[in-house]
Amino acid sequence: MKMEDIKTHCAGEFVSYKQNGICKIERIVKQNFVGLGERTYYELSPVYDPKSVIYVPMDSVELVFGMRHILTKEEIDRIIVGFEDEKLPWIDDQKERATAYGAIVEGEDRGKVLLVINVLSLYKKKLEAEKKKLYASDAKLLNAAQKAITEEFSFVLGIEKSDVIPYILAKLGK
Hints:
- With 174 residues, this protein is of the alpha+beta class.
- It is 45% helix and 17% strand.
- It has six helices and five strands.
């Protein structure tokens, strides 16, 4: 990926940034951190951790690629409705599964993140019936996926985090 392939963002915009969740781009600033030379940064303020500040160098393809526009209500509703039409294949090998599903959770496709939640939740229920537990890597992925969806959907829809699952189920007619 090259810098010209990266979407640009503006001050005042809300984005999702890696594990930090929904962040507001407070401003674009020039800084010289620890004497490395002046660079231009996005200054991010995480919505659910307002005391934190994150600086993302605008010339770092990898870090800027981790920022993505948040969904609209209409996009969320389309994702939910289309969710049942798709399937995510189960990957037996735990390490391959962690890598593949981890890439999905870190990616932009929120519909696929819902699929990861679904497949891991079903697997968790199956294991619980057998008096077993999820691998730690599966549990970590499930938590990360649930956090990403819950935070973004609650923020965009203007509802409590605890109301996200009922909202999804209502849209699915369940």
